[in-house]
Amino acid sequence: MSAVITCVEDLRAVARKRVPRLFYDYVDSGSWSESTYRANASDLARLNFCQRVGCNVADIRMDTRILGQPVSMPVGLAPAGLAGMVHPDGEILAARAAAAFGVPYVLSTVSICSIEDLARHAAAPFWFQLYVMKDRDFIERLVERARAAGCPALVLTMDLPIQGQRHKDIRNGLSVPPRMTLRGLSALLARPRWCAGMLRTSRRTFGNIVGHAKGVGDTLGFSEWVSRQFDRTVSWDDVQWLKQRWGGKLVVKGVMDARDARRAVDAGADAIIVSNHGGRQLDGAPSSIRALPAVAQAVGGRAEIYLDGGVRSGQDVLRALALGANAAFIGRAYMYGLGAYGQAGVARCLDILRRELESTMTLCGLTRVQDASPDLIVNPYTAFKQQGDHA
After folding, report:
1. Dihedral angle at the C-alpha atoms of 304, 107, 83, 105, nearest 10 degrees?
2. Which residues are the active-site ones (predicted)?
3. pTM for the complete prediction?
4. Is position 166 annotated in a ligand binding site?
5. Low-confidence residues of the chain: pLDDT under 70
6. What does the pLDDT look like over 209-233, one tens digit per residue?
């Protein structure tokens, strides 16, 4: 690595210089005013730790289990669309880095690399993320493809009955592959390293959809198809149907309300991801960390709880654990690493989080991640309440 990398922010700075603007902005943006996108990180930062001394912290244990799977630390790589456009073969590289580190990787439905392609090249089983779309036949076939690939868990994203308006994507004319307009071509040519890598790979479209969904034989067909596929009728009955169809571990992503959390568990969820889609859907929604305690209390141990949104450090991971999560999932953080240095960048991101988590646990007098509790945080349930703040 040519630059000195000390934190995730350093990776972001390098990625911004190496990834074409339309794909960098796709990662580093939220919907509308981006208030929820910013709050995800800023609300985590407002949680102060209780520093402890006089504790025997010679043996720090960060290993645990996620859905029964042994992991080196309570972190997973969240589903992130277009990873293969942030870096050539991005999904394969990220999955390999996760496997080497001993944490789960979740492949997105709107990935560039297909399920089958990743299964051939990944070093370990991976989870698969699914949207319920109007074409239920296509969804059933996706589920069967994930089963055939040996995916140990299915992640159902529930918060996309309509796509949030993301102003940067609209201004940039985001498309896959990029439109060869004068403006688009000049933006790509400004990133010669990226262009060279894309010329060496054949993975340049939505591998899980193009050639698999009815009438989608190319990217133009994909755009027309996906605009018709957002389904506003999706309900908890669909979750029960999917659980029965899948038969394995089911994770429901996009839960921000205690009532929805209880419904998810009743419908068969083995785990819940507290997530506002990284601030990319409902702008003005609370941050994920604000929603976490109420969801964890509502579930009451009947399912595992994960946090997604705003996690940029090992300290954020520990904050999530303290307020009720079993693990934290990162999206933008590892995508910055991927855009900066490919597989090595993702590995560096995970190593940064591990070191930060270990250091913070040590200074807080905590030796096992499983023992994280609200006692780690100064005033954990009033940290967000300031003048005029009634969240």
Report:
1. 50
2. 277
3. 0.95
4. yes
5. 217-223, 386-391
6. 988 888 776 655 566 777 788 899 9
pLDDT digits (tens, 9 = 90+) for 28-58: 999 999 999 999 999 999 999 999 999 999 9
Which class would CATH give 8-162+181-374?
A: alpha beta
pLDDT at residue 183, as a whole number: 77
Give the catalytic positions in this structure: 277
Q: Which two tokens stand for residue 118?
A: 């990743």
Q: What is the pLDDT of residue 223?
A: 63
> Do 116 and 145 meet the contact criterion of CB atoms below 8 Å apart?
yes
- Domain residue spans in the chain? 8-162+181-374
244 is annotated as contributing to ligand binding: no
